[in-house]
């Protein structure tokens, strides 16, 4: 009898990874579960207790009938992900730590650990797919079939070596089917709410968390006319397109006297780090919020090289429709020019490129087409 292929599954305590483990066992693999602890600075409170998630993951492993191991990657996470996260915020950019976590922890530290356990493959509960292109011999990263859950955006930094060792069992399924399977086999977390917070922050107030690591440097909030209409608490605590938490909602009458529309909300449009000014505008479609082009660097291509395509599509943020654009590649980065201006293009976020359902890779946005006033 042939020896079963060993697959190590990242069990997070959530329903997606739980069903992934079940499906792999049904397919005849020898399945081992690994629970990754990535944060421990204050991991005992209401916002982000991995202890609760581990109990859920262990209960899932018990129902499915697989072993589970608890592995601590907190040191790697702090060095490779959190340190970069803080550097980016201090520079006034808005990073996406989930993308870095996937590239550095879930598909590097975790993958290395799984290989030491004798695994042929690893698997996670991400909504994405991997396909071997027979004509090129390259592995392709594809969107998950459920358009509402596709997570290829967060996985775009994975390389050929990582993809060749990875399975995404729920990538072929809609979320409703994943929930149905979980209930059918009696998984204790079948109805567990999806996590939406960054793993080490959870659902806590983000500004309160960031304030523990980054000093506040208050400064003026100005409108497009250059008039000061409020005070910000520090540019690191704001992101482009932000509407809530500006502290200027109560000055509508005053804003109207200054030429603003008293009924339109304010949005963060620009951050001048040199002068410590937060620029805000009224109205979702204000010209300052619309970018016809962007620049991205720190590139990562799934195929190992830049695509030869010039007409392409891109997302400048998660849960955004693919936006048609043209791609220009040079020695240090890429320039994207969009058919329709993009809203609140944010330095630090990722521009991820697609050719239909194929995720090609992308880079970190460094600038949009704006110049400060």
UniProtKB/TrEMBL annotation:
Q: Positions of the site: Interaction with tRNA?
A: 126, 349
What this protein catalyses is: S-sulfanyl-L-cysteinyl-[protein] + uridine(34) in tRNA + AH2 + ATP = 2-thiouridine(34) in tRNA + L-cysteinyl-[protein] + A + AMP + diphosphate + H(+)
Write out the annotated subcellular location: Cytoplasm
Q: Where does ATP bind?
A: 10-17, 36, 125
Domain tRNA-specific 2-thiouridylase MnmA-like central positions: 207-282
Keyword Lipid biosynthesis listed: no
Q: Which family does it belong to?
A: Belongs to the MnmA/TRMU family.
Q: What is this protein called?
A: tRNA-specific 2-thiouridylase MnmA
Please report the organism this UniProt entry assigns to the protein: Hydrogenophaga aromaticivorans
Q: What is the lineage of its organism?
A: Bacteria, Pseudomonadati, Pseudomonadota, Betaproteobacteria, Burkholderiales
């Amino acid at each position: 009898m042939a020896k079963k292929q060993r697959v190590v599954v990242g069990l997070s305590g959530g329903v997606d990874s739980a069903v992934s483990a079940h499906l792999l066992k049904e397919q005849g693999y020898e399945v081992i579960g690994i629970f990754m602890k990535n944060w421990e600075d204050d991991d005992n409170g209401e916002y982000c207790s991995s202890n609760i998630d581990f109990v859920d993951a262990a209960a899932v492993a018990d129902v499915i009938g697989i072993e589970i191991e608890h592995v601590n990657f907190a040191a790697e996470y702090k060095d490779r992900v959190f340190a970069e996260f803080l550097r980016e915020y201090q520079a006034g950019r808005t990073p996406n730590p989930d993308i870095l976590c996937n590239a550095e922890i879930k598909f590097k530290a975790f993958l290395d650990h799984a290989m030491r356990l004798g695994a042929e493959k690893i698997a996670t509960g991400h909504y994405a797919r991997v396909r071997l292109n027979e004509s090129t011999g390259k592995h392709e990263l594809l969107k998950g079939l459920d358009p509402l859950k596709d997570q290829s955006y967060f996985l775009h930094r994975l390389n050929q070596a990582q993809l060749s060792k990875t399975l995404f069992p729920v990538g072929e399924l809609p979320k409703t089917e994943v929930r149905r399977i979980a209930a059918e086999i009696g998984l204790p977390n079948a109805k567990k709410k999806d996590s939406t917070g960054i793993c080490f922050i959870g659902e806590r107030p983000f500004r309160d968390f960031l304030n523990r690591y980054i000093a506040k440097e208050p400064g003026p909030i100005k409108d497009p006319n250059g008039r000061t209409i409020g005070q910000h608490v520090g540019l690191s605590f704001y992101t482009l397109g932000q509407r809530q938490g500006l502290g200027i909602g109560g000055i509508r009458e005053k804003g109207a006297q200054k030429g603003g529309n008293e009924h339109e909300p304010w949005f963060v449009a620009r951050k001048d780090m040199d002068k410590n000014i937060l620029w805000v505008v009224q109205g979702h479609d204000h010209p300052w919020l619309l970018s016809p082009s962007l620049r991205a660097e720190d590139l990562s291509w799934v195929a190992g090289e830049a695509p030869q395509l010039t007409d392409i599509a891109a997302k400048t943020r998660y849960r955004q429709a693919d936006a048609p654009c043209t791609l220009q590649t040079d020695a240090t980065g890429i320039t994207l020019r969009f058919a329709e201006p993009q809203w609140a293009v944010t330095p630090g976020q990722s521009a991820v490129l697609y050719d239909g359902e194929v995720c090609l890779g992308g880079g970190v946005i460094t600038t949009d087409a704006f110049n400060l006033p």
